[in-house]
Structures are given as C-alpha cells and as structure tokens.
Write the structure tokens for this entry.
Amino acid sequence: MAELHTLTIAELSEMLSSGACTSVELVKDLLAVIDARDEKVGAYLTIDREAAMEQAHAADEARAAGKSGVLLGIPVAIKDLLNVKGQPCTCSSKILEGYTAPYDATVITRLRDAGAVLLGRVNMDEFAMGSSTENAALGKTSNPWNLEHVPGGSSGGSAACVSADEAIASLGSDTGGSIRQPASFCGCVGVKPTYGRVSRYGLTAFASSLDQIGPITKTVKDSALLLEAICGLDKMDSSSVDMEVPAFSAALGSDTSLAGMKLGLPKEYFVDGMDPEVEKAVRDAVEHCRSLGAEIVDVSLPNAKYAIAVYYIIATAEASANLARFDGIRYGMRLDGKDPAELYGRTRAAGFGPEVKRRIILGTYVLSSGYYDAYYLKAQKVRTLIRNDFSDAFKQCDAILAPVTPTAAYRKGEKTDDPLKMYLDDILTTPVNLAGNCALSLPCGFSGAGLPIGLQIIGDAFREETILRVGYAYEQTTDWHTRKPEL
Amino acid sequence: MSESNQGMDVGYVARLACIDLTEEERGLFQGQLDQILHYVEQLDELDVSNVEPTAHAIPVYNVLRKDELGSSLDHDAVIANAPSAADGQIRVPKIIDQ
C-alpha cells in the first residue's frame, strides 16, 4: 500500500471512497509515523489514540452505510487552543494544566459533522503569543526541515505535524501571522480567512478583533476543502458573518491560466533586512505568475510600516482583557491566597510565562486612564489608514503578492532574548489581520540551507476564492510543495 | 503620545493586571517594555486627528439573539474543572471579614 501518511486530503478522500484504504488503516499509519518521528519534531502535546481509532472506525462504518464526504475519515490535528469536549486544552500554558474542555468549539463540531478524525492536539506559543513556538510552556517543537531551527509560530505544532507527515492537515489560528508564518517556515500551505468567515466559539481568545481560525495543509486544494467545512455563520460567535460559503475547491479552476488576473506587488513589502534569498524566491514567483498570464501591477501600502506598532498596541490591549479570565477561580491552576486578590496575583505569576506577562502588562498600560487616547485610540486610527491602503490597492488588482517573512526559519534561541526583534518579524503578516482581509501562504522556494520560503497571496475581504485560485495555479505549475523533509 | 509617556511603572501596572512579579522580572520587563513603547512612538509621525478609529474589521453591529431559553454547559463537567469545589459550587477564599 502507498505510504498513506504522505498523501493529501484530496488523494485520500478518493482512496477512501473507492475502498483502496480505510480510515482505520490511515490512522494506524499516522500513529506509527508519530511514534517514529515526534520525539524529534515535538509537534504533539496530547494524542488520544483510543478516541482517534474510535472515530476512524465510526467513519469507516458510516461510509459502509452509505455516507460520503471529502473529510469523512480524514485525520486532522488541532492547535491546543481549540476546545474539544473531554480533551485538555492547555494553550501550551501551565495555567490551564488540568483543564478538560466541557464543550466543542464550533469548528470542531463542523469537523465532526463532516466525519473528520480528531487526531491530537499540537503545540503552540503560549496563548498564541509568539512567532517561534519557543514561548510554549508545555512542549518543544522543531522545524522538520532542520531540527535546530524554529517551526515558526504561534501555530508551530500545526505546521510541523503537517510538514513531517504526522497529520494529513491541521487547524491553526492567526492573529498576526500565526498560520501563514509557520506554514511558510515549514513548507506548508496556510490560510488566514477573512475576519468573520470562521466562528471563533471555542477558540481561546487572544485578540478578538484579529483572531481567525484557518487550515494548514500540504496543498492549496486541501486548504480549500478544509475551509469549506469550517466557514460560515454561527450564532455562538456574533462576529461571524451571514454570507454564503462558496465552494472554494470548485473555484480553483480547471486550468492554470492566470490570464485576466491583475496581481499587485507592494514595494513596501520588500523591507530593509530582507534576506536576498527570500526576495529572489518571491520575485521569481511573481515572474512565474506573469508567465501564467497574470498582469503584474505596482501597488502601494504606505502605512504598512506602522503595522507592528499598531498591532502590538491593539493585540496586547485585547489580550489583557481576554486573559483576565485566567484567575485561578473556575478552572486551571490555583495558588491559594488569604483573599482573592492575593490568589489572583500568585496564580497568574506562576501560571503565565514571560511573554504572556509582558503582553498583559503592556495591554493593561495602553488601556489605562490617561494613556488610552495616546496609545489605543491612536492605534485604532492608524489601523483605519492601513485598511484604507488595502482598499485602495484592491481597486487596482485582484490579489497582492508578497513575502510572508523577511527570512526563512531561524535557529532556536536566536531571538528569544529580544521581544521587539521577534515582533518585527511580523511586519509582513500583521497588516492583513488589522485590515481584516484574507491571505494564504504557500511554498515558493528553498534557501541555500535547505529551509522553505513562502509566498503570501493577499486577497480583499471575502475573496478567498481569488487567492486560492492564484495559489493553485502557482502550485500546479511548480514542484516546491512536493518536497519532503528527511526525518 | 510622547508628552504622555513619562515611562511605564511596570510594578504598578503589573498590580493592576493582578500579576505578582519578582524583582528580577520587574527589571527585565521594565527595560523590554520601555524599548517597545519607544518603538510605538513612531505613530506620532502621523496626523490622525480626522481619522475614524477601526475597532472591528467587518461592518457587523449589535448582533442580538432571540430571548429564548437554551441549553448551557454540563454543570458537573464545569465544576470538575474548578481547582476547589464543594456542594456543586466553586470554593474561593473569604472576601468579607466578619
């Protein structure tokens, strides 16, 4: 039998439907691969083997009884901030050790309805705060392409498990680049959907005006298939929009021509300090899109350079409010005190890691009396300028091509002592979250050291079909996505 | 922003945020957060006096649900997560003396 773990959702779905393999065989194969590799990669925090096998059996039985569906029996790994009933949900934080989720997140309900197998929970930066998964309190994750390098973050486990063939696909979340950047670092495809596309009910909130859940997969088509399953209105999340969910996979098109497509190239996105190898790979990808018939136009996003300053005000402000719920009272860790205030202070001191503390303190400060207008309100106004830049750009083009990060995956420990240096790496991803539109990341080359480089395709709000189509055309006419790390 | 930024007192703000910091953390965070606040001062270059703030990226407002009774989380599962519980309720330290 083919090495099932190396295949895609699209391929496996056909095999499952023709009877060439079963979900039970597939899950067994993946568990064996996890046993062999995850000691090195460190993607998973917890795996409920029994539950996974039960779901695989149930999927095979449902299929035998006449049920069908593209995700039926397909194993998916879950970032450890999505609630799955009866499973832990630690957000890779000590403060949530011992917590058992009493309900399913809406995306989990949708995956269950589609018959997907929930394979296990994967590592992340604590509460999704970080860009390297080095802020994880409960596990250490490596880049499958070079174990000395970071997998990116915060959805580092979600990207590493897909890259290492330890999962067929995964879910991550993206507040400032946390899907696209690890996907880029690990050579995967990742999509940050438009704000409002996917319900966040059951996602542990970091920054509520920015957070979105999205897929990390081996191919563009797989991302489209997973998106179809998780998007759509949910009464449990009032920020989810009442719009029809397009058949994303059908929008990929039957040919790879980009004729008639206008793709924008923002000069501001080729920033100082960008690795020449990254710039070359992205510029080559742009030329490739031109050769597929796209017209390349120059666009300008003049306020994008302020995105980091705006992002680290808005995201920390929202985080300081969202993380107030971790107080040692209702769930998770508790360090006792003589009164509630002492209990809170001790519990939060022991439960949160340094980056989470830093961000809560910064967020508390920018919202505090006397500083609100100077920081938070000002950041919200500059956020409007960043949004307007994108609106103007999308009057001239259908999608924007850009790098995902200034460099390929760096060595572990390289930036952990300097938070600002780590933040600055998010310069090319945060503008999309602030504007609320959608973007995907897909492989477009490798550095001389053999690490993947990503291409970012940014779309206007609710234009996922456009970026998926461009990504698909690029992918189908290149072979970067077919390469695998040696493990 | 620059005139309002007299520097952050990390110890004071941490107390507002209910996080006990060690002496070492306070010193470390003070330096790191001062550096970050200095970085965000670049927003002062922009005149945004006539710009509307963006709080939310999509135009969805005042989403109300029907005032109908629905199901809630399983009581036992919720209480099972509490660090301390008795009689189906969460135990906390005494709030009022007497």
Remarks:
- The domain at 1-46 of chain B is CATH 1.10.20 (Histone, subunit A).
- The longest helix of chain B spans residues 23-40.
